[in-house]
Amino acid sequence: MNMAVVGMIAGMALGFAGYFGGFGAFLLVAALGAVGFVVGRLLEGDMDLRDFFRPRGDRQR
Fold first, then answer.
1. For the purposes of burial, counting CB atoms within 10 Å of the CB of 13, is it exposed (0-12), middle (13-18) or buried (19 or more)?
2. pLDDT at position 22, please?
3. Residue 26 CB: number of other CB atoms within 10 A?
4. Distance between CA atoms of 8 and 56, rounded to whole angstroms?
5. Exposed/middle/buried for 27, CB within 10 Å: 0-12, 13-18, 19+?
6. How far apart are CA 27 and CA 43, in angstroms?
7. pLDDT in tens, the chain (61 residues)
8. At 22, is the secondary structure helix, strand, or coil?
9. Taking CA 53 as the corner, what is the angle to CA 24 and CA 43, rounded to the nearest 5 degrees?
10. Whole-prediction pTM value?
């Protein structure tokens, strides 16, 4: 599945949550989607957990 289809599905889920559940449900779905995205990237190995806790000055280019 390409990223355009994934983005469309995520947008539709947020739209349904906002329409049927209100703004609170929209925020909940968006937050859980972001958490799921980060966990998925961590499990795939595309992201390192240390990147979140490293001070800004220590980043390598």
1. middle
2. 92
3. 18
4. 33
5. middle
6. 24
7. 777 888 888 888 989 988 999 999 899 988 988 888 888 888 888 777 787 777 776 656 5
8. helix
9. 70
10. 0.66
- Indicate the residue type of 2: N
Reference 31, options 47, 13, 44, 5; nearest CA is 13
Joined together, the tokens standing for residue 3 give 């990223």
* pLDDT for residue 52: 72
User: Please, what is the Cα angle at 19 between 23 and 10, to 5 degrees?
Assistant: 85
| H helix runs in 1-56, sequence order | 3-44, 50-53
Structure tokens at 18: 């906002």
Give backbone dihedrals phi and psi of 60, rounded to 5 degrees, phi first.
Answer: -95, 150
For residue 20, what pLDDT is reported?
A: 93
